[in-house]
Amino acid sequence: MLLELDGLRILTDPVLGSRIAHLRRQGPAPSPEVTDRLDALLISHLHQDHADRRSLRSLDPETPVFAPRGAGRFLERCGLTAVSELAPGQSVKIGRIQITAVEAVHGHGRSPVSRGSEAIGFHLSGSRRVYFAGDTDLFEGMTELADKLDLALLPVWGWGPNLGPGHLDPERAARAAAMLSPRIAVPIHWGTLFPLGLARLLPGKLSTPPHEFADWCERLAPRVAVRILQPGEASPISSLGGGTVDAQA
């Protein structure tokens, strides 16, 4: 996701190429303009679909990067020179925006790279308040993020036919929306990466999760407006009085 808020451009967990290992991008690659003039990069955790080496190496090495504890060494090996590690509850200020690391419930043992680091989400507070969940399951402290939250970026699926623990499916993401009570929720982490050959066999997994999330929100979080963005699509949040959200998953 590319967030444009209060004059800043903030990119989250970028995957910019056509593949990661056995996963292939579905649809067009992000526009090269996505990585222009970045003011900050947020890395939620070190799983390959959130911290892709090739994508990170293509960025301006002096871009300020905020990541969980234990992630600095990996990110510096990717050529990034301005890395700050944050534990849940720690904050930094960039321009008019305060960026705070928050809890995430997501396993970190998938690869040797990720075992030494945690997973976090991010809360951004400026003229508007935004929550970027990264990858997480529901957790009790999620309700503490609900204070006048304008926008929640919630994962509703993943890159395969099934989800393991530490993820949100459409129903659980809707329960997260009910706990967070944002004005707008944008479903993320769907429809972009899929194992080679499976897209033809299970095409529904690439398109249905955000719509299932919207249906569940009608039941569980009816006051939350769901805005579904196709990968690569941009949407202004003018209804909130300023700023834009650009989806480039």
Structure, described:
By secondary structure, the protein is of the alpha/beta class. It has six helices and 17 strands. The strands form three sheets. The protein has a seven-stranded mixed β-sheet with strand order 7-6-5-2-1-17-16. A seven-stranded mixed β-sheet has the order 8-9-10-11-12-13-15. Strand 10 and strand 11 form a beta hairpin. It is globular, with a radius of gyration of 17 Å.
Put the structure in a nutshell:
With 249 residues, the protein is an alpha/beta fold.
Task: Please outline the helices and strands.
Blueprint: E1 2-5, E2 8-12, E3 19-20, E4 23-25, E5 40-42, H1 53-57, E6 65-68, H2 72-77, E7 83-86, E8 91-94, E9 97-103, H3 112-115, E10 120-125, E11 129-132, E12 151-155, H4 170-180, E13 184-188, E14 193-195, H5 198-201, H6 209-220, E15 225-226, E16 234-236, E17 244-246
Parallel strand pairs: 2-5, 5-6, 6-7, 11-12, 12-13, 13-15
Antiparallel strand pairs: 1-2, 1-17, 3-4, 4-14, 8-9, 9-10, 10-11, 16-17
